Amino acid sequence: MKPAAFDYTVPRTVAEAVEALGDTERRAQVIAGGQSLILEMHLQRIRPELVVDINRIPELDGMSAEGGELRVGALVRHAAFESPDAVPGPLGTLLAQAVVNIAHPPIRSRGTMVGSYGWAHPASEWCAVGVALDATVELTGPDGDRSVAAGDYFLGPFRTARLPQELITAVRLPLLGEDTGASFVEHRRTHFCFAQVAVGTTLTVDDGVISDVRIGLVNSADRPVRARAAEDVLRGTELGPLPAGHRVHDDHPFARAGRVAAGQDAAPLPEPFADADYKRHIVSVLVARTLLEAANDRRARLAVREGDHR
């Protein structure tokens, strides 16, 4: 199939882009990487009357870490996060572990983090990381700028709080302290499939006690999920000795948190090759695994800081 006929505009400023989107008489779509949009247009599942190409807006192409936050502009490509050193501290580790699960190198060289927020696919890695970390979505429209918490932004599959005449200009993520460990693990049927389930976790420990934990679930409901019930099981718990290897025994707090996440936080939708019960089982396993990996990441980070480079 071929795309339906559409008009095409290339604004040079955010104001010009918003003006183009503000024409509510026309169905408009924004393109940055276009890795999802182009396919949907090709299959005519989406038939925009106007495509607004934001790739010539320099102010959207930048990433900065200041004031305790990482601000990611709308034109920053997935590939920018492939090195853990691209972003300071544990957040860089989390983003680097997540990004390698996004498609493959040609896609990552063009697609964008902000584009994932615009598309709002339930299997998006970036969206679940944002919900887990209380990210903020920056929007600009005809009435000015506004910010929306990631937890309030996602409304369902491909549905968000963005108004049709608004442009997502950036996403802000909190930087993570050195007492925090991070991990991201994905389960999918083949290398080229969307995630059946994935989990991103951060774990902060003070004086041997878990003071903060963030757990984001991918493709475990009709939108990205923060596993708050599972977090509550762990917060205030002594970390204690970590299991050796990758196996977490059933009586360990990490395993209990996994069961809570599967039973109370997740609301998985069945799909080919993965019914709801199967996906709940994977949620349970991956939550426990990412918690263990985050704890080990924190321990390794502290060892390096204290001069033990073994």
UniProtKB/TrEMBL annotation:
Keywords: FAD, Flavoprotein, Oxidoreductase. Residues 1-178 form the FAD-binding PCMH-type domain. This is FAD binding domain-containing protein. It comes from Streptomyces gibsoniae.
